[in-house]
Amino acid sequence: MELTKEQFIRDFKDQLHRDFIVKINESTDEERFLALAHLIKKYISTPWLERRHDLVEEDVKTAYYFSIEFLPGRMLETNLLNLGILDLVEDAFKDVDVDFSDVVNAEKDMALGNGGLGRLAAAFMDSLATIGAPGFGNGIRYKYGLFKQKIVDGYQIELPDAWLGTDGNVWETKKPHSAVEVKIYGKVYLYPNKEGNFEPFYEDPTILRAVPYDIAQIGFQNGVVNNLRLWDVEIPESEEDKYRTIEDRRKIEDITNILYPDDSSYEGKSLRLIQEYFMVSAGLQTIIKNYLKTGKDLKDIHELVAVHINDTHPALAVPEFMRILMDDYGVVWEDAWNSTVKVMSYTNHTILAEALEKWDCNLFKEILPRIYQIVNEIDSRYVEEVSGKFPGKIIENTRIIRNEKIHMANLSIIGGHSVNGVAKLHTDLLISDVLNDFYQIYPEKFNNKTNGIIVRRWSQISNPLMSDEIDKLIGKEWRSDIHQLKNLEKFITDEKVLNEFYEVKKENKKKLAAYVKETQGIELNPDAIFDVQVKRLHAYKRQLLNLLHIIKLYWDIKDNPDIDMVPRVFIFGAKAAPGYRFAKSVIKLINEVANLVNNDESLQDKLKVVFLPNYNVTLAELIIPASDVSEQISTAGKEASGTSNMKFMMNGAITLATLDGANIEIKDAVGDDNIVIFGMNTDEVYDHYEKHDYNARKLYEENPTINRVVNTFIDGTILNSQSEGQEIYDALIRHNDEYFLLEDFESYVNAQKYINDIYRDKIRWSQMALNNIANSGRFSADDTIRLYAEEIWNIKHN
Ligand code: PLP
């Protein structure tokens, strides 16, 4: 946008004056942040307002991305960057003597998501606007985001994240005039009407008022502003009399209160089902109303509308779309179904059996009586359609209602035209294994869309030093065309350049070290290897394997204090789902091992372990630029894609990885010499499943190193963790080590030795790092979303 620094300073002073009646030098950082955010909203109000009107007027097909999670983190810098005024604002703040970073830090981290899935949804919002595509988000305005994690005596404590405060979210705008009603519970009877169709009659439903809050999604320097719509619940005025006590009202308000803090596992709570229906129904009602403004026939709605189901949580979009078309607008079943399948598409995010969402029929029927009828009908028609054409077993495995449960993935696949996995390996596994029955029926629906990241956030915003260094070498064009990073390969043998990148990394490590010192009181040596594993805590992600190796190093140094090794700092960040006992025990053990190691002077600072509490996007932006080693060590075949792996490589960390998820594509991008791979591949893992021949106890008994490391959990070496240590021991030995840590242990130890050796060769290490940076452009979410736009939604983009 066109703006001079002088004009900005005038606008900003005016805004502060009007909002808070203060002068700049008297204002707090929070007031400055809020005034700046208000000013940004003012700058974009016209394109934001006109976007939707233009799309309706010009009959442009629009995609709606439905997701129960959006994890944008802070938005101030991204918004300024995308408007093209980040540098100008930073400069202006210097002129008026305000520290810009303090203003940035005044923003709360918007954490309406658990991890990768929610972060991807937020990334796609930025990318859709950036490629100029008509793509809007639809989700829930949780009053409490993902819990805040504190560590007390080594244990995870969860605190509520009341991120909205008393004044709400500065980026949102409430739109009461666009509120709609959503019905749940009650009974539904179908009566034949004059046209011979059935019309539903609702007896005693609970009626909810869904009120939208819109958040602008600003494209990167292209004037486009899309919309993310988050729904909040209210009691409709007409229903006020029914809710006389605070308790009664709370039952309704609870619907949008909390984000379920589970990652990679499914929890069958009725409140969650209501959340899912609430956001889907409100979103679809609005989409259909907007479509009707074009004056077109409803049976052609698929020509202008695409709805994406991000994981199965919004899968009720399928029956709800049918319901609205049929019950509210009188479209006949066949036409409604034809449109529904063409409108809907679905992304699968997991192959873990425990994460596949299914609902008990009785609960479902009670909460969503009309939707249950429709799902039943979809299921019977599906069975009828495929009967005789496919073996009975395949039909049984793929139907929606089975064993008194509604299978949400099956509903999403049958009710849509596209199913995609999120990395090549993941899609291959869906096709060959998890969803193979469906693949036999609908091969044409399957496709891959490897995840991507917002490259601007993970370079320009989070790593300004590296970005300046890149500018010096290849000019600034890479900031708008990320593929130009490839030009960095020219410098791969230039020692001066390599040294400069090494120094940039060191500066970032010092910055992180200062944060660690301030928050944890632990002193870190910036010449040590910063070895980082930050992600949700889950058994399949194998933080425990990392810890086993740390314990091995501990014993190595204890046995031989003169051991020649590069000092190593292991950094963890990870939230565990509050009910996930094993994961919480791993956190406790990491913290107790950290106490053991960090307080043992005989280790001479060769080993440090840091657990940084409350890992979130903001912390990721500090940690990732300071990392030397990126730990991506999940059991092969378990991590659908990963996205932090891409962020680390973009910041010049070397990936230490199994052949899992997008690690494989990172390996293809950087070449075998610039990544460190270890462990079993998927075939080897599957081979164990088939042969049932894995024997963790044997490895434990026969391999003295494994024996000693595992015994450390139960022999009293690690203090204050007797029961957790026993639990971990049992998981590994008595319950046969479900994720094959012990099998991969030796290979992991060797890979870590290799890392130690190459780190000593500063030039070689820096070459690997630069190669990673140069080849990270291919993981841009802008490119990923272009493929969604072209191959799934059929929407236009620039
Ligand atoms: N959590 C947060 C806060 C993130 O920023 C990210 C990705 O950057 C993730 C989780 C996902 O990490 P991973 O891909 O390692 O699972």
UniProtKB/TrEMBL annotation:
<dbReference type="Pfam" id="PF00343">
    <property type="entry name" value="Phosphorylase"/>
</dbReference>
<keyword id="KW-0963">Cytoplasm</keyword>
<dbReference type="InterPro" id="IPR000811">
    <property type="entry name" value="Glyco_trans_35"/>
</dbReference>
<keyword id="KW-0021">Allosteric enzyme</keyword>
<keyword id="KW-0119">Carbohydrate metabolism</keyword>
<keyword id="KW-0808">Transferase</keyword>
<dbReference type="GO" id="GO:0005980">
    <property type="term" value="P:glycogen catabolic process"/>
</dbReference>
<comment type="function">
    <text>Phosphorylase is an important allosteric enzyme in carbohydrate metabolism. Enzymes from different sources differ in their regulatory mechanisms and in their natural substrates. However, all known phosphorylases share catalytic and structural properties.</text>
</comment>
<dbReference type="GO" id="GO:0005737">
    <property type="term" value="C:cytoplasm"/>
</dbReference>
<dbReference type="InterPro" id="IPR011833">
    <property type="entry name" value="Glycg_phsphrylas"/>
</dbReference>
<dbReference type="GO" id="GO:0030170">
    <property type="term" value="F:pyridoxal phosphate binding"/>
</dbReference>
<dbReference type="InterPro" id="IPR035090">
    <property type="entry name" value="Pyridoxal_P_attach_site"/>
</dbReference>
<keyword id="KW-0328">Glycosyltransferase</keyword>
<feature type="modified residue" description="N6-(pyridoxal phosphate)lysine">
    <location>
        <position position="647"/>
    </location>
</feature>
<keyword id="KW-0663">Pyridoxal phosphate</keyword>
<comment type="similarity">
    <text>Belongs to the glycogen phosphorylase family.</text>
</comment>
<protein>
    <recommendedName>
        <fullName>Alpha-1,4 glucan phosphorylase</fullName>
        <ecNumber>2.4.1.1</ecNumber>
    </recommendedName>
</protein>
<dbReference type="GO" id="GO:0008184">
    <property type="term" value="F:glycogen phosphorylase activity"/>
</dbReference>
<comment type="function">
    <text>Allosteric enzyme that catalyzes the rate-limiting step in glycogen catabolism, the phosphorolytic cleavage of glycogen to produce glucose-1-phosphate, and plays a central role in maintaining cellular and organismal glucose homeostasis.</text>
</comment>
